[in-house]
Amino acid sequence: MAPAVPRSGDAIFANVERVNAELFTLTYGAIVRQLLTDLEEVEEVNKQLDQMGYNIGIRLIDEFLAKSNVTRCVDFRETAEVIAKVGFKMFLGVTASVSNWDTEGTCCSLILEDNPLVDFVELPDTCQGLYYCNILSGVVRGALEMVSMKTEVTWVRDMLRGDDAFELQVKLLKQVPEEYPYKDDE
Amino acid sequence: MQFFGGSEISPSPPVPTASGNNAHMMYIFNRNGVCLLYREWNRPLRTLNSNQDHKLMFGLLFSLKSLTAKMDPSSAEKGNLGVPQLPGQGCSFHSFRTNTYKLSFMESPSGIKIILVTHPKASDLRDSLKYIYNLYVEYVVKNPLYTPGTPIRSELFNTTLDQYVRGERNIWYTRVDMLLISKPASEILLLCDASFELFSPKGYRVASFICLILDKCIHA
Amino acid sequence: MIVCIAVVGHQNNPLYIQSFTEADDALKLHHIVHCSLDVVDERVNNPKKSGPMLNETFLGLLYPTENYKVYGYLTNTKVKFILVTTDLDVRDADVRNFFRRFHSAYLDAVSNPFHVPGKKITSKTFAERVTNIVKSVSFHTTG
Questions:
Q1: Which CATH number applies to B23-166?
Q2: In this predicted model, what pLDDT tens digit does every residue of B115-164 receive, in sequence order?
Q3: Helix runs in C4-123, H state only
Q4: Where are the domains of chain B?
Q5: CA distance C140 to A171
Q6: pLDDT one-digit tens code per residue, C19-41
Q7: Which residues contact C80 (CB under 8 A, 6 or more apart)?
């Protein structure tokens, strides 16, 4: 049988190389600031962060799969659990919880109590519309797309806007079947 | 958090069992059927141009996969033959063997397919394929200048891959094993005396060279 | 009681100043802080006077006035913290401790990516944290 899917990312987290959390936080902060300076529009920055996250996600998925020994997930529920318990732990060092499932099992929330990206951060009044952690939603979207799941990822709660946790809503739009990629006319 | 990719790939690479000089060629495909990498080590006969060859290989895998899923006796929902499978559906094969070659196959959930064609007597290569997948992650995916979905042009990856598949690092283990079987211990000790490098951790190349000589002596 | 706390940049530009009195003497306090900067400069430029405290961030009592005592702290990046208190009988250790906590609050505030180095600290969290530290510290222990 296939090897058991790890239920928590602790073991993997212990093995991956780590980088100082403050360096990480400050680097990300510097990126966001620079984007704000360059693009001027908060909306544009949100978009750009999401795009950056997406580009990270489509690469990160391979590392995740290679290191975690996760095989195919049976359904979206399992996928969400694996992201929350293994994925977040492995790359961010925190664990998310999954809740707020809708009845069809296609929409859920990943809730982060703790988020290393936002240490020190306080949104100034001029960028209230900014989703500071929008890169995360991009990463999740990109990674899921690589395993054939088209999703829509939005922030529902954001601690920087005064909420009590970070809540990321992941909505499964469709599962893309594996098509034969070549045209027949050749 | 991994930012600065380590040089260490995974705990210890599995010995490329018997693929040593027996590996013929290797393909890496992505989900869209793009051949990311084609390496060939020992392929005497070429009948098609490379593009057709890649397509044929991908097509073979694709059809074989849907056939294996169709024939699965344990799963109820298998869909119709030829109808595209959803992720998570179906089953897959690891390898097949003909009288002239063996094809080992691995597919990651992200759609990366790694195919290794070897001598038919090669044993289970699943661990080796997994290791190659790890190499791919470290040398290709993590390279920020690599655009996902394009053919791989990384000299470093190719070299590492070649080394691994040819088993340069590991060759001496097998050779020593052979020695131990074929000669009494006292004689081997004498031989090894002359080659203290054998036990130095960085002396792989030297060691394999010495082993080759020893090998020759024994068979002479 | 601490009546005023100030952060001054390395070019003597004010980064943050906050007074904690009911009375309307903010201007006077600002003046005191301003004066103290000269003392800091003097201390730094004449290390002989300060003797063994050469590598010390805590500058100690800068100068006493009839009503206040003024303490200083200089970070390695030449940012000065000035503390004005009405308590006249203060132990150095307590002040040191206060500055240490204040320093870490300052560090977190400047680590905010939206803070521009060299500009005034506008963070509400920082203000809150400073108020908390000030409230929690009482110097009249020996009293």
A1: 3.30.450.70
A2: 999 888 888 888 888 889 998 998 899 888 888 889 998 888 988 888 88
A3: 26-45, 47-50, 92-111
A4: 23-166, 171-219
A5: 59
A6: 888 777 788 888 889 989 988 88
A7: C6, C7, C8, C37, C40, C72, C73, C74
Residue B88 identity (one-letter amino acid) = G
Tokens of C121: 């600290």
Whole-number Cα distances in Å, B191 to B196, B214, B218? 10, 7, 11
Please name the residue of chain B whose CA is at the shortest distance from the CA of residue A117: B1
Find the length of chain C: 143
For residues B25 and B20, what is the distance between their CA atoms, to the nearest angstrom? 12
Q: Which residues pair with B96 in a beta bridge?
A: B103
Domain count, chain C: 1
| A150's tokens | 């088209």
Q: From CA C4, how far away is CA C26, in angstroms rounded? A: 9
| Secondary-structure breakdown of chain A: helix, strand, coil percentages, each rounded to the nearest 5 | 50, 15, 35
Cα separation of B188 and A178, whole Å?
Answer: 56
Cα end-to-end distance, chain B, whole Å? 55
Q: Which chains touch C (3 or more CB pairs under 8 A)?
A: A
Nearest to C111 among A26, A124, A127 (CB): A26
- CATH code (residue C91): 3.30.450.70
**Does any CB of chain A come closer than 8 Å to the CB of residue B94?**
no
A126: closest CA of chain B, how far (Å): 31
Domains belonging to chain A, first-starting first, are 19-175 (3.30.1380.20)
Q: Do the Cβ atoms of A182 and B111 come within 8 Å?
A: no
Indicate whether A124 pLDDT > 50: yes
Q: Is C11 inside any structural domain? A: yes
Please state, in angstroms and rounded to a whole number, the distance separating the CA atoms of residues A128 and A162. 11
Map tokens 């500009």 to a residue: C119
Which of A136, A180, A185, A186 is most worth mutating to test chain B (most B CB atoms within 10 A of its CB)? A180
pLDDT of B203 reads: 41
- The DSSP element (H or E) to which B128 belongs, if any, is helix B126-136
Q: What ipTM does this complex have?
A: 0.84
User: How many Å apart are CA A79 and CA B186, to the nearest integer?
Assistant: 58
Task: Classify residue C142: in a domain, yes or no.
Answer: no
Residue C143 lies in a domain: no
Secondary structure element (H or E) that encloses residue A51, with its range: helix A42-68
- What are A151-178's pLDDT values in tens digits? 999 999 998 888 889 999 999 998 887 7
* Chain A contacts in chain B segment 32-61 (CB below 8 A): 32-34, 55, 58-59
Question: In this structure, what token pair is assigned to residue B152?
Answer: 């791989």
Kindly list the residues from chain A whose CB atom is less than 8 angstroms away from the CB atom of residue C108. 120
Decide if A120 contacts C111 (C-beta within 8 A): yes
Whether the full predicted model's pTM is greater than 0.90, yes or no, is no
Matching residue, tokens 């318990």: A85
Whole-number mean pLDDT of chain B? Answer: 72
Q: Which residues of B touch A172 (CB under 8 A)?
A: none
With beta carbons under 8 A apart, name residues in chain C contacting A21: none
- The domain of C132 spans 2-136
